[in-house]
Write a structure and sequence with these properties.
By secondary structure, the chain is an alpha/beta fold. It folds into three domains: about 90 residues, Roll (Ubiquitin-like (UB roll)), CATH 3.10.20.740; about 80 residues, Alpha-Beta Plaits; about 375 residues, Rossmann fold (3-Layer(aba) Sandwich). α12 links the parallel β13 and β14. The longest helix is centred in the middle third of the chain and has 22 residues. It is globular. The mean pLDDT is about 95.
Length: about 575
């Protein structure tokens, strides 16, 4: 690719043609402040904080949206530039509530950080707050439009990355605001609760629905038996909240912290991921080998994806696996199998799940199958961010905790289970066991590297003892339409399906990039978190779900076999078409 030479702050640099001034400056370790910019999104220069001076330009230009040119000379900071940037920040603050101490983003807010960096200690402009009501209509997300800085990130994520269009700009001029499409409540919009809007919001205008207080109350009740499960992606991201690098495995410290918080039993969602593979893998093999159901089989671990399909592609429901997500399976088993084994009244068990996802808050009550134990299978679902706040509130020195173990009954897991948290991981785990179920043989190499990576859609052909299995993997909702349209087109023409098995995750990178993960995720962090999960897989004694001895014991003692009547009662679900969202 052609290179362009330019000078930034008097130093010469050579960068690829088309590079923005902002990115060129980053290559030289020069920081240009931004607020609306995010590496996941196309720049659109909304905030004006990244202004710079360029030779031969009569005006200051916005670095995030200005491409470099041969011979360009850029000044990124002088007293005039600093003063203009400070004025822009002060104007934003004049319409922003002074609620930092009670805001969920306190000490983790990009506007707060900018105000501190520019030494803003008083209000220069008269405060003129907008009287905009909050929106708490969903069980997953809360909108606080008064705190919105109109950066547009949430709308661009929802429209461009997710293809959902649940958020948009409404009004003009000073009346401009971000709101659910059609100016309805968020719960009445096409929103799929993925939480990518909250993960990309620089301030506290969109947050997860915080439920830590409910868990604290349960932990205090002497007549309750609080138990907890942690999802695979949480263990490679929680450390970021305590200054650790992305991708560092913190499984043992998580177990220790949860015990210190007062949970009486520590489970691991990975155990149920192995169980999901047994059920979903068996479902795939049955359909693939006997024609008992339509092909391709489509995974259903991601509740935001399930919500999306019910709204936008209800005609594809027959292709969906009926297997519940690992979260839901473990919730059901905690109040049935575990309760029976331990002699505990299921009504006393208070199940908390720690998830990288805001849509999991929606999932725990999405249908009657989420009450398969006779009670609500999962009482509260917390995000990784919520758990990190609880650990800090308790005064726990997370980084210096000794590693501890989970409770083996619902805590042991294989390497296949832990890679569920990365895009392609569910497919890879399923193929490891599906190969065994079809051939009755063990794989010599369990690594399906074709399923890995951050390409939006991945396709591969897998040889299973001479039989071709065609797979597709999509992450980021905007990428799934092309995959489903191929399936629909083939079905309409009476042709062989283009795929036999499809995995979908709503969030870029899969659960490692979930809407409830620590703020600041980009592709580098997603890759690091995924690498942590693959490291956990390599370290595992068993790397296939069917090899997990506790899973084998569960079937022998309680469930009978995959797809049995009891398995269907506790571990499977159904779906509801909602075509009114197909605008």
């Amino acid at each position: 690719m052609k290179k362009v030479k330019l000078k930034i702050d008097g130093k010469e640099v050579s960068v690829k043609e088309g590079t923005t001034i902002l990115d060129a400056a980053k290559e030289m370790s020069i920081n240009i402040p931004t607020l609306c910019y995010h590496p996941d999104l196309d720049s659109w220069a909304a905030c004006g904080i990244c202004i710079v001076k360029v030779n031969n330009s009569p005006k200051m230009l916005r670095a995030c949206a200005t491409a470099v040119a041969e011979g360009m000379e850029v000044i990124t900071q002088d007293s005039e530039i600093v003063e203009v940037r400070r004025s822009v920040i002060e104007l934003i603050l004049s319409t922003h509530p002074n609620e930092c101490l009670t805001c969920l983003r306190n000490q983790n807010c990009e506007l707060q950080r900018l105000a501190a960096e520019f030494g803003i200690r008083k209000m220069t402009y008269p405060q003129r707050l907008r009287d905009l009501p909050g929106d708490m209509s969903t069980s997953s997300l809360v909108l606080n439009p008064e705190k919105c800085v109109l950066c547009g990130r949430c709308a661009k994520v929802c429209q461009d990355m997710q293809g959902v269009w649940a958020l948009e700009f409404l009004g003009r001029g000073e009346g401009t605001r971000i709101a659910p499409s059609g100016d309805v409540n968020l719960n009445d919009s096409p929103c799929i609760k993925c939480g990518q809007c909250s993960a990309h919001c620089p301030v506290g205008a969109i947050t997860e629905k915080s439920e830590e207080h409910i868990v604290w109350q349960a932990l205090r009740k002497e007549d309750m038996y609080p138990v907890v499960q942690i999802a695979p992606a949480v263990r490679v991201a929680i450390g970021e909240a305590f200054g650790q690098p992305s991708g560092k495995l913190e499984t043992g410290k998580l177990y220790a912290a949860l015990k210190m918080l007062g949970f009486k039993a520590i489970f691991d969602t990975n155990f149920a991921a192995d169980l999901t593979i047994m059920e979903e893998g068996s479902e795939f093999v049955e359909r693939f080998t006997t024609g008992s159901g339509p092909i391709p089989l489509i995974t259903t671990c991601c509740p935001a994806w399930v919500d999306y399909l019910e709204k936008y592609y209800p005609e594809m429901i027959p292709y969906f696996s009926t297997a519940k997500s690992p979260q839901s399976m473990l919730g059901s088993l905690s109040k049935t199998y575990y309760a029976e084994k331990m002699g505990i009244d299921p009504e006393k068990i208070f199940m908390v799940s720690i998830m990288p996802c805001t849509a999991k808050k929606f999932e725990i009550a999405r249908s009657e199958e989420m009450f398969s134990s006779g009670q609500k299978d999962i009482d509260v679902s917390l995000t990784t961010r919520e758990l990190s706040r609880m650990i800090k509130s308790a005064g726990i020195d997370f980084n210096n905790l000794p590693d501890e173990e989970a409770d083996s009954i619902l805590g042991d897991y294989s390497g296949a289970a832990t890679i569920f948290g990365a895009t392609g991981g569910v497919m890879e785990a399923a193929l490891r066991t599906a190969y065994h179920l079809v051939t009755k043989k063990d794989l010599q190499d369990v690594n399906f590297t074709e399923a890995r990576g951050l390409e939006g859609v991945k396709e591969a052909k897998i040889d299973v003892e001479g039989t071709e299995v065609r797979i597709a993997i999509a992450h980021g909702m905007v990428n799934i339409a092309s995959v489903l349209d191929k399936v629909k087109s083939a079905a309409e023409k009476g042709q062989e399906p283009p795929y036999h098995f499809i995995e979908v995750m709503a969030c870029r990178g899969g659960c490692v990039g979930g809407g409830g993960q620590p703020y600041g995720a980009d592709d580098e962090k997603r890759k690091a978190r995924a690498a942590g999960l693959y490291t956990d897989d390599l370290k595992a004694g068993n790397r296939c779900s069917h090899e997990n001895p506790q899973i084998q014991r569960l079937y022998a003692e309680y469930l009978g076999s995959p797809l049995s009547k009891k398995s269907h009662e506790l571990l499977h679900t159904s779906y509801t078409p909602r075509p009114e969202y197909r605008w």
